Amino acid sequence: MECTVHWIADAGMVMLAETGSGHVLSMDGAPEGGGRNLAPRPMETLLAGAGGCTAYDVVLILKRGRQQVTGCTVKMSAQRAETDPKVFTHLNLHFVVTGKALSQAAVERAVALSHEKYCSATAMLGRTASISTSVEIKDADAAAA
């Protein structure tokens, strides 16, 4: 895996990341740090990446388990250390999974497997942060009504 990050000097503290898969992601700093709030902060993108990684796992595990999953949202909150380096110290991941006749046990198992075995991003973040998870299941038919 590769990534190149370029500082866009005439845009304050905007950084442009070019991923090995050919995609571009912009990041910026807070105004008090020289940024102009034009894009997410680098730590926000790290948090978003972890959410994407674990959501991917959960959906894939549920689909392989023949669950009729139609949606998955991960609402995340993070706490950071007060001193540098301001690493994440706690993450809370609340999964809202939508589908038809989803099994509570299957969804909880998918979240646990992602957290304990498959998600590389949360495994790395778990080295400095405690991670808590919760699950909410929504019926697709009720959600559509």
Q: What percent of residues are in strands?
A: 35-45%
| Total DSSP E strands | 6
If you average the pLDDT, what whole number results?
Answer: 95
Q: SS-based structural class?
A: alpha+beta
**How many structural domains in the coordinates?**
2
Q: Can you identify the CATH superfamily of the largest domain? A: K homology (KH) domain
Figure out the total of helices: 4
User: Which architecture name of the largest domain does CATH use?
Assistant: 2-Layer Sandwich
CATH topology of the largest domain: GMP Synthetase, Chain A, domain 3
Overall radius of gyration: 18 Å
Spatial order of the strands forming the largest sheet: 1-2-3
Shape descriptor reads: elongated
This entry's quaternary arrangement is: single chain
Low-confidence stretches: none
InterPro entries: KH_dom-like_a/b, OsmC/Ohr_fam, OsmC/Ohrsf
Protein name: OsmC family protein
Organism: Ideonella paludis
Pfam families: OsmC
Topology:
Elements: E1 3-8, E2 14-19, E3 24-27, H1 42-64, E4 68-80, E5 88-100, H2 104-118, H3 120-125, E6 130-139, H4 140-144
Helix pairs in contact: 1-2
